[in-house]
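Quality-control log, excerpt.
Job 1 of 2 completed; input and output follow.
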Amino acid sequence: MDKSGKMTCAMIEAAVDKGLRDIEENPRRGIRNLVDLGTQLSTSRFHKDFFRTSQQMLRNENSPYYELTNHIVRNVNHQIIKHFGISLGYTSLTYGAQRIREYEKEYGYNIPWTIVFDFREDTKNMLSDAEISEVLLYGESIGIYCGMFFVNKNQAHLENLVKMLASHKDSAFLVFTEPQIITDVIADVIVESSNILVALSSQTGGEKQSFMEAAQILFDKKCLYGAYCGYNGHNLQEVISETYSRQIKEARCTFTFLIREEFNNAQNEKRFSHFMQATKSANKDPFFWIDFYEDLAHVDRTISVEDCFLAIQGDGQIAVKTLAALQEGINIRTHSLQTIMEKTMPKNQFI
C-alpha cells in the first residue's frame, strides 16, 4: 500500500476508535453516529449503498442489527474489529478496488476482488505456504486484498496457514473450517493476527456438539466468527428452517454463508431465492445471511461490472464461476495468476 493509503487507514482507525468508545457508552446512538460517519466518508458506490441501507435498517428501533453491533463491540477483540474491518472495508473494497479498475483498463481482462482457495481435498501435492503467499503478494500488487480459504480437517495445516496469513497485514482473510480442528492455540493465533475471520461448518444433519464447542472457544478468545453451510435439493428445507437459524443464534455467530451446491430442479432454486429476499428484508435475525456466490458476484459487479469468480484448489488447479467448475490444463504452478486471468476472464464491459 502506498503512503497516501496508509495515511487514510490511520485516519479511519482513529474514527473507528472513537466510534467503538461511543458504542460502549451509548450503544444505539454510537451505532447510528458511526454509520452516519461512514456515509459521509464514503467515496465508492459500494460503500454508499451499504451505509444507506444500514441507515434505513437502523431507523427501526427494534432492528436486530443494534443487538448484533453491540454484541460485536462487547465480545470481539477491538484490534480485530479495527484491523479486519479496515482491511476489508477500505484496503480491499476502496483502495484495492480502484487499483483493480485501473489494471483492468490497462490490460483488458477482469480481476476478482477476492481469490478463493479450496483446500478441502487432502492431496499429496498441496500448495505450500510459500506458494500461497506468493499468489497473495501478486494479488496485492494489483489490488486484491482479500482471500477466502476452505480447509480440511488437518489441524497442523490450519495452524501453519493462519500464521502465514498473519504476515499479510494489509489484507483481510476468511477461513472456512471444520469445527473439530479449532483449538485454543489456533484461536490465539487468529486473535494475534487480527486480520482473519472464521466460518465454522454447520452442515445440517451434522454433529452439533463440535460446532457449539468450537464456537465457544472462539467466543471466549474474542474472535470474529460465524458459520457456513452448503445447500442443495436434499437439505434445502433444513437450511431455511427456524431450527437452522436458531442454531446460528445459539452459537452467537455474526453471519452465516450459504453455499449453493447442486439443485435437482428450478423450483428449489426459486424457493431459496425467495427465502433470501424475505429473510434480508424481514430484518429479524441478529446475524448476516450471506449467499456465497451471489453476494461475492455482487461485489465483483460493483467493482468490475462483470462476474469474475476465481478459485485455486490445493493441487493448484483452477476453477471459475463455481468451486466445481475446473479449467482443464490450467494450474497456478504452470501459469502465472496474470496469465490465468487473461485466459479465463476476458473483459467485455468497463465502468
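Job 2 of 2 completed; input and output follow.
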Amino acid sequence: MLSKEELIRYNRQIILPDFGTETQEKLKEASVLVIGAGGLGAPNLLYLAAAGVGRIGIIDFDEVNLSNLHRQVLFDGEQVGKNKAQTAKERLERLNPDVAFDIYTEPITSLNAMEIIDKYDLVVDGSDNLPTRYLVNDACYFLDKPLVYGAIFRFEGQVSVFNYVSANGQRGPNYRDLFPTPPPPDMVPSCSEGGVLGVLPGIIGSMQANEAIKIITGVGTTLSGKLFLYDALDVSSRSLNVAANQENPLSGENPSLTKLIDYEAFCSGIEVKNETEMTVGELKERLSQGSIHILDVREDYEYDIANIGGQLIPLNQVIDRKKEIPSDQPVVVMCKVGGRSQKAIELLKKEGFDNLINLKGGILAWQKEIDTSLATY
C-alpha cells in the first residue's frame, strides 16, 4: 500500500492514463540493480529513485574524478575523491528517503556477478567496457533477468532491452545476438580515450530508466528486439531489428557457454587454457612450500593498492624486461582478474618461456578467498 505522502509524491505519475496506484505499487515492490554510477548510471539512478522503485542496488568501485563532473550529474566538486556508489546513495536518499539502497564498492566479476544479480528483478547496465557488458549479459541470461542496455561514444548512443520475456512467454534476444564476439580491443576506445558529449549520457541514461520502468510496470512497449540509435549532432534516431542469432554461444542452436568465463581474456582475444591455470588456493599452498615465483603484470598504482608480494612488471613492459623473469622455475603470472596475465603469458611464450602459469581470478580472487583484508579496487 502507498502511504499518504507517497500518493502526494507520485501524484503526477499516478494520474497518467493506464497507470494508477496499482502500477505505482509495482514500482515500490520492484528491485533494480544499476551497474555503474557514472555517466549512464547517474540519470538512471536519479529517475528510478524519483519514480519510486522500492530497492536499488548500485555497483561502482571507482572514485569521483574532476573529469567526471561534466556528465556525471549525481556528483559535485566537493565529492571528488569519494567512492561513487556511497556518494550516490547519500544523494539519492535525500531525493527519495522511501527507497532502500544497496551499495557494492567492489567491481562486478565472474566471482560475484551471479550472487549479486540474483537478488534483483532486473539489471540496468551503465558500464563503459566490453568485459563487463558480456559478463552482465551472460549472468542475466543464466539467471533469467531482463537487462536494459545502454552505450555511449562521442556524440552517439544506443539503447536496447535484452533477455526480456514478453507477456506471451517469448524470450527476446540478448547482447550476444547482436555482438556474438567482441571486436578487437583497439577498435573500442573508452570515453577517456575517445571523449563524450556531456549531455549524451543524460539522454541515453534517461531512456534506459524509461525502459526499466516499462519492464516493471508493464505499461508501454519495451525495446526488446530493437536497437535504438541516437545521434546528438543532428538529433537523428533510428531503430534496428535485433533477431535471434543461431551462432549465439548462449542461446543459439549449439550453445557452448554454460557458465561465466574470464571476460577480460575473452574481450582481449586471448584463449584461456585451463591446463596453464592455477587457483589462488593452489598458489597459497605452493607459496608455503617456497617453490614458486609470482609475476604481477598490473600497473604500479594497482600494485600500491593491493599486492601479494610478487615481482611487478606491467604488461606493457614484460617483453623489454623479460630477462628479469626467471626461466628456471615455475612462474605464476597474475593481474586483476586474469586477462592481462594471460596476455603476458602469450607474449612471453613467443619469447621462449615455457614455465608460466596464469593465476585464475587474479588479485580479486585472492582477496575474496585468501586474504579479505586486502583492498579491492
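Post-run check on job 2. The domain at 4-241 is CATH 3.40.50.720 (Rossmann fold).
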